[in-house]
Amino acid sequence: MTILVRNAQIKDINSTFYNKSVDLLISNGIITEIAQNIKAKADHIIEFEHLHVSPGWVDLFVSGTDPGYEHKDSLHSIAAASAQGGFTHVLLTPNSKPVVQNKTGIHYITDHQHPFPVNLRPIGAITKNTEGKELTEMVEMKTAGALAFSDGSKPVQSSGLMIKALQYVKAFNGLIIQLPEDQSVAPNGQMNEGIVSTQIGLPGKPALAEDIMVSRDIELAQYTDSKLHLTGVTTQKSIDTIRKAKQAGINVTVSATPYHLYFAETDLIDYDTNLKVNPPLRTNSERLALIESVKNGDIDCISSHHTGQNLDQKNCEFEYAGSGMVGLESAFGILGILNIDIDKILELICVNPRKIVNLTHTIEVGSTADLTLFNPSIEYDFSASDIKSKSSNTPFIGKKLKGKVLGTILNNNISLK
């Protein structure tokens, strides 16, 4: 099968065609020609106004809900949501039922075929049943196809166990992903601890719970000389600690979520359960500092933390509501409406996450087709019809976003909007 993409501006800083407007000819999943006004016949011709093309985007942290919680999201619906949002590679946390903790769990994800141009990539559990007590056989999962290791939404609390995990994966240059939270600090907290939590009468969770864990895990990464990625970081103190660690040569990277850049704790005044997330929304000053950290490069990448929750788990009292929101479909548009430069956005959702998990790719003749097609200047109102997840728990419905995904191509598979 041949695909001809016409008049596309190449947004790949590593390509010799960077910022040039050219045609791309793809034959049987391989880019065979890049030039202006290609005359070859093709089975599919793709043309859009103001079309931009980059290597396919990567999300390092999406909640795994299949098997066991398919009513929230199945592998099929997560793949559909990923394609809708422009992602061609998505890493799934192991928090399914059963937990992804052996080669059988890895193969359940990698062997699943999708009608969408998306690779769902498994994250193997660090500890058995993500209980934080005993290490899994990570070498076995790495061999089977796990790209990284994490206990997902249940961060490893034991320092001794975390040291062993970091030492374990170092043997095969593996990566540990940690959501930094000391769960012994205000375990019943529902939102950020502060004036707003006092005003609206919800138990608070202090920033200290994050800052402690960030400092601890960086110390452990330094001690073991292993690779660590901290995801969902929200506080300026944590970012300062991570910056100093990088300057000291410690192998640590960090991601933030789009919704922590957009919302602050004051948005919880109406008790919107779609804004119940973990880590919680912080103060507006922390939010603005986080945006600045994204723009100046202290934040390496953006991860959606896409978490499907069915209606019953959100249509209830705030205290009993499930945590998280769907976010694959809206991530790109949120970054655009925050006036983050398109080259910086692509660094955050394409260049850096690919480096972190060794999925490097360049748009050149001879490369496989692994592409995201988009128009960065379109503004639109995000609607329920934009959501392809089984769940629709998001506060972004009705919000104006900027930047529209037009399609994705992975090998011979095409998804166009």
Structure summarized in a few sentences:
Helix 2 (103-110) packs parallel to helix 3 (138-144).
Give structural notes.
The chain is 27% helix and 23% strand. It is α/β, with parallel strands linked by helices and 417 residues long. The chain has 2 domains: 2-52 and 366-376 and 383-416, Urease, subunit C, domain 1; 56-356, Metal-dependent hydrolases (TIM Barrel, Alpha-Beta Barrel), CATH 3.20.20. The strands form 4 sheets. Strands 1, 2, 3, 4, 5, 16, 17 and 18 form an 8-stranded mixed beta sheet that branches. A 4-stranded parallel beta sheet has the order 6-7-8-9. α7 (236-247) links the parallel β13 and β14 (252-256). The protein is globular. It starts with a strand and ends with a strand.
Topology (SSEs and partners):
Elements: E1 2-10, E2 21-27, E3 30-35, E4 44-46, E5 52-55, E6 57-62, H1 75-85, E7 87-92, H2 103-110, E8 119-124, H3 138-144, E9 148-149, H4 159-170, E10 175-178, E11 191-192, H5 195-200, E12 204-205, H6 208-224, E13 227-231, H7 236-247, E14 252-256, H8 258-262, H9 284-296, E15 301-302, H10 331-337, H11 342-356, E16 370-381, E17 400-410, E18 413-416
Parallel strand pairs: 1-4, 1-5, 6-7, 7-8, 8-9, 10-13, 11-12, 13-14, 14-15
Antiparallel strand pairs: 1-2, 2-3, 5-16, 16-17, 17-18
Helix pairs in contact: 2-3, 4-6, 6-7
